[in-house]
Design a protein that fits this description.
The protein is mainly α and 317 residues long. The protein has a domain of 156 residues. Helices cover 67% and strands 3% of the residues. The chain is built from twelve helices and two strands; from the N terminus they run αααααααβααααβα. The chain has a two-stranded antiparallel sheet with strand order 1-2. Helix 6 packs antiparallel against helix 7. About 9% of the residues have low confidence. Keywords: Signal.
Length: 317
């Protein structure tokens, strides 16, 4: 019977280990597609030059004559859209039946409709970006999950094969010292594989998030990523159910509770609120959930806008 050298057998086992490692690492190239987002919208055409008065009391006081026809939230919306003058003129017109008045009213309505349309477009645009980004992160998270599962399976199979190969080698090798060498080498490789399968973090992926809408929420900062109107709706307490805290604050509190177990230090250090970094599967799943939650909040803005439109239509009658 042919005698095997311990070096040769251990070499075979090492190659087997490296083969399984390389198969797992091949996906690293594929994960490079995750670095840049294809969801970033084209250069914004939103007018960021104008500011919105954030003193709600002064706005409501200045438009107190509109309260019989409009709710407080609607008055704040028309102020944010810069259509106060148009609304006042429509409401105060005593003779709306003359030809001149009808022409003027139609002009005013067109100006108002354009502003409302733009507001709706800005909400839809942000919602669409969040929807795209959420789907993108879900795909990456699933890819990482599958890679981790595949890696564990391959390492387990490799460990079994190495164990079997070691057993066969010890039978074929008659020299006791060689036999011991093979056993030791196989043991080291088997231990390495076992340690790899116990790695709780698994595969990682690098993602660049220079445009990070989650960061805007967490830091309560807007660097022109979100239109002034939508940002105003998110940061004005009047548009939340309680009327005391903003939609942005409520969103942040939910994230802190459900994603970070009330651990503010952990949340502040999270890669999800950075400009990019290394994400593990748990980070990706948390990011996907927070993006979906923020998208729901953005969509909810339309409830207040729809109320304003309904009150506006009644004022036209």
């Amino acid at each position: 019977m042919k005698t095997f050298s311990s070096v040769r057998v251990i070499g075979y086992l090492s190659l087997l280990f490296l083969n399984f490692s390389c198969v797992v690492q091949k996906n690293d190239t594929l994960l490079s597609i995750a670095k840049e987002s294809y969801c970033v919208p084209p250069k914004s055409t939103t007018d960021f030059r104008y500011g919105i008065t954030t003193n709600s009391d002064s706005v409501l006081k200045a438009n107190i004559s509109l309260k019989p026809k409009f709710s407080e939230s609607s008055i704040l919306i028309m102020n944010a859209l810069r259509i106060n003058d148009e609304i006042h003129e429509i409401v105060n017109k005593t003779n709306k039946k003359s030809l001149e008045s009808m022409v003027r009213l139609n002009t005013l309505k067109q100006q108002i409709d354009n502003r409302v349309w733009m507001a709706n477009s800005e909400i839809d645009a942000l919602s669409a970006e969040l929807d795209c980004e959420g789907e993108r992160i879900d795909q990456i998270a699933n890819f990482v999950d599958n890679s981790n599962s595949s890696k564990t399976t391959k390492l387990t199979v490799a460990s079994i094969v190495i164990g079997a190969a070691s057993s066969i080698a010890t039978v074929l090798i008659s020299n006791e010292s060689l036999n011991n060498g093979v056993a030791i080498g196989a043991g080291v490789l088997g231990a390495s594989l076992g340690f790899a399968t116990l790695n709780p973090k698994g595969k990682k992926v690098e993602i660049n998030t220079n445009r990070n809408l989650l960061r805007n929420v967490w830091l309560n900062q807007n660097r022109h990523e979100i239109s002034p109107f939508v940002w105003y709706m998110l940061t004005e307490p009047q548009f939340s159910n309680s009327g005391k805290t903003t939609l942005l604050q409520n969103t942040k509190e939910r994230w802190l509770t459900y994603q970070f177990d009330e651990n503010l230090t952990k949340a502040n250090k999270s890669v999800n609120f950075s400009e990019g970094g290394i994400y593990i599967a748990d980070d990706l799943h948390a990011r996907s959930q927070m993006i979906n939650q923020f998208q729901s909040v953005v969509r909810s803005i339309k409830q207040n806008l729809n109320l304003f439109i309904a009150e506006l239509n009644n004022a036209f009658d």
